[in-house]
Amino acid sequence: MGRTLIICAGLFVLLIAITIFASLVGSQSLPLRSSLCALTGASGCGLSPEQHAILFDLRLPRILLAGVVGMCLAAAGAAYQGSKWSQDFSFYEFDFDRQQHKTYQPSFIID
Q1: Nearest Cα to 36, choosing from 19, 57, 49, 53?
Q2: pLDDT in tens, 32-84
Q3: Using only C-alpha atoms, what is the Rg of the chain?
Q4: What burial class does residue 56 get, using C-beta atoms within 10 Å of its C-beta: 0-12 exposed, 13-18 middle, 19+ buried?
Q5: What is the maximal distance between C-alpha atoms in the chain?
Q6: pLDDT reported for residue 3
């Protein structure tokens, strides 16, 4: 369990780093310190009104939407993997011809 926790924590830190990087880089780059100050909710961080609009009206909604779409795709994939339908059918069982040893025929087996 310790290894899994370390991996999850590392992936979470990587997610935060990528989110910050994506919010700063674009056709107009934003200053790191001012942007982080603005993201914490403090006022008077040194961002111009245009930079504030770029950060909060363009980049952050796009980043959050990408995260939500990714979570939905992950949930859909997990639901598909764990559904009753995928448990009832074995796609990976093969019926080997034991006499000739040359041919095999994939079989679609319903449990």
Answers
A1: 19
A2: 999 989 988 888 888 899 999 999 999 999 999 999 999 999 999 888 877 75
A3: 25
A4: middle
A5: 81
A6: 92
Residue 16 lies in a domain: yes
Looking at 1-111, list the stretches that DSSP marks H as alpha helix, in order from N- to C-terminal side.
2-24, 32-39, 49-53, 60-82, 84-88
Domain that holds residue 22: 2-82
DSSP 51-66: HHHIIIIIIHHHHHHH
pLDDT of residue 78: 85
- pLDDT value at 93 more than 60: no
Nearest one of 35, 37, 81, 34 to 59, comparing CA atoms? 35
The string of pLDDT tens digits covering residues 1-29 is 799 999 999 999 999 999 999 999 989 98
> Does residue 13 come out as left (phi exceeding 0), alpha (psi in the -120 to 50 range) or beta?
alpha
Residue 109 CB: number of other CB atoms within 10 A? 13
Q: How far apart are CA 44 and CA 36, in angstroms?
A: 12
Domain total of the chain:
1
